[in-house]
Amino acid sequence: MTVSASRFRLCTMCRVEKVLAAFGNNKNGKNGLSGICKACRNSAQKDYVRRNKGKVLSGLNNYYYKNQKALLLQKQQYYKQTKESQVKKSRRYRRKHSEAIWSRWLYRHYGVILAEIPASLVSITIINPE
Ligand SMILES: [Zn+2]
Question: What is the distance, to the nearest Å, from the Cα of residue 99 to the centroid of all Cα atoms in its chain?
């Protein structure tokens, strides 16, 4: 498992250096994180909606809004059909990436980097659901 050397990142929008947890995920971004901090992304999103109210509202009146019941039903059916394989897939993923998941959780909640904790203090028991 690799932990980023830097715990901070410069937001490309507000130009403020913030902890990594302040950035959203973005598969295409550096280290899998967005280049814009969450606060900036939220305000940009709100700004967009304010500036494009007509567009956003007419969007709601369009396809997704008009078909929301059918789309929901479709989603539920798809979920029912693929439930088992999805559960298996996510179980497999969690097992394979358990250390990374745990270390991300630790960092998000306590700002602690797992690799920096002395091994003598760490005792991890990974419980497999099967
Ligand atoms: Zn920002």
Answer: 17
C-alpha 101 – ligand 1 centre gap (Å): 25
| pTM higher than 0.70 | no
Tens of pLDDT, residues 35-64: 999 999 999 999 988 888 877 777 766 787
CB atoms within 10 A of CB 111: 11
Distance 41 CA to ligand 1 centre (A): 7
Q: Measured in angstroms, how far is the CA atom of residue 15 from the centroid of ligand 1?
A: 6
The domain 1-66 having CATH identifier 3.40.640.10: the answer here is no
Centre of ligand 1 from the C-alpha of residue 17, in Å: 8
Domain ranges of the chain: 1-66
Using CA atoms, how far apart are residues 101 and 92, in angstroms rounded to an integer?
13
Segments in the chain below pLDDT 70: 1-5, 60-61, 122-130
Q: What is the pLDDT of residue 102?
A: 86
